[in-house]
Amino acid sequence: MQEFDFNLRTRVICGQGALDRVGELAAGFNVKRVLIVTDPGIIAAGHVERAIQSLTASGITPHCFDGAHENPTTEDIDRGLEFAKGCEPELLIGLGGGSSMDCAKGINFVYTNGGTMHDYHGVGKASQPMLPMIAVPTTSGTGSEMQSFALISDAKTHVKMACGDKKASCQIAILDPELTLTQPELVTALTGIDAVSHAVETFVTKRRNPVSNMYSREAWRLLAGNFKTVLKDPGNLEARSAMQLGAAYAGVAIENSMLGASHALANPLTASYGTAHGQAVGLMLPHVVRYNGIHFNAWYQELLGTTESLPGLPSPSSGAEGLAEFLTGLIEAAGLSVKLDQCGVEADQMPELAAAAAVQWTGTFNPRDVNQESLLGIYQNAF
After folding, report:
1. How many angstroms separate the CA atoms of 137 and 253, rounded?
2. Which part of the chain has CATH 3.40.50.1970?
């Protein structure tokens, strides 16, 4: 059996109305001051007020930084750091999508360890203890609540920096499906495709192991089996809960096996064209599956075996091609683009995109080796 080192560092609280327990859970850390990191949309939805009421009832003083933006940048972290210095929190709460949770982790890095986010680009660079953190995702996408990484973009170059340290892991994740009901339809689509991509990519990386495979398979079953239901019936809390748990499971899989070429190809699209991450990674995923399937078709067949009994899912025998076609259908059902030219990408820019994709860290974990030439070919197939 392949060697692995597995430690699930995050306690998971799952259920409708679970947000109302945040005060009780925070009080368990014996703290008096808490910093909530969120964005204006989450405040408008009323989720922050619910959290504040719960915290206040538990004798905790909450402070709210609402400066988290989609794809948080070093500037967001700098502003959050100054805010944190003013209220001196003893615990952080990331309340929102992956961007809010990543922003909270980023603030935690620099508030407790000093320096700038660039100092933590990589793995294990925080030398001092970090504050405890509670993650409350309002989307079913990144799985950041289960990961020790924060993805922070350089504000000048727009390059995404993966900043990881076990001390940055959330102590608690609160999965309350009611919070996902306020998502705009497009956010449901984008985050759902992102979560699906995580389940698929983590199952076939070079670092895959028995534990990551277990979480990838269950994430795939939950996500592939419920995504279309959520799109057609947004008020279906059972399906939304399954999506939220599936995204969290995929986050555990990422923590243990990393990602692949789909994310390496997606990041330059976001940096150069502002393409939403879910759109970018979803568009590229079927083409990466076909690329990998030439040598790793059996792994995709194994993944499809997980959902063999579910209606509308491809048969295991269809392998990479069947999976790629199914994924394209999911993207179309979500109302997203399936071709790069539909996203404003110009053919003569693809060599530059491929050069940027070739230096992405996630590409090194792809099961089939990639380089600038092969990545260009995948872009061309997606055009």
Report:
1. 17
2. 11-178
What's the CATH superfamily of 185-381?
Answer: Dehydroquinate synthase-like - alpha domain (1.20.1090.10)
Q: Give the count of beta carbons closer than 10 Å to the beta carbon of residue 315.
A: 12
Report the 10 Å Cβ neighbour count for 244.
Answer: 29
Query: Is residue 2 very low, low, confident or very high in pLDDT (cuts 50, 70, 90)?
Result: confident
Q: CA 258, 275, 380: angle at the middle one, nearest 5?
A: 80
pLDDT digits (tens, 9 = 90+) for 110-164: 999 999 999 999 999 999 999 999 999 999 999 999 999 999 999 998 888 999 9
What's the residue count for the chain?
Answer: 383
**Helices 185-202 & 237-257, crossing angle to 10 degrees?**
40
* CATH 1.20.1090.10 location in the chain: 185-381
CATH of span 11-178: 3.40.50.1970
| CA 87 to chain CA centroid, nearest Å | 28
Question: Distance (Å, rounded) from C-alpha 30 to C-alpha 33?
Answer: 10
Contact 117, 110 (CB under 8 A): yes
Gap between the Cα atoms of 354 and 265, Å rounded: 7
- Measure the CA–CA gap between 332 and 8, rounded to whole angstroms: 35
* Cα(176)–Cα(18) distance, integer angstroms: 5
Rounded to whole angstroms, the Cα distance separating 216 from 248 reads: 10
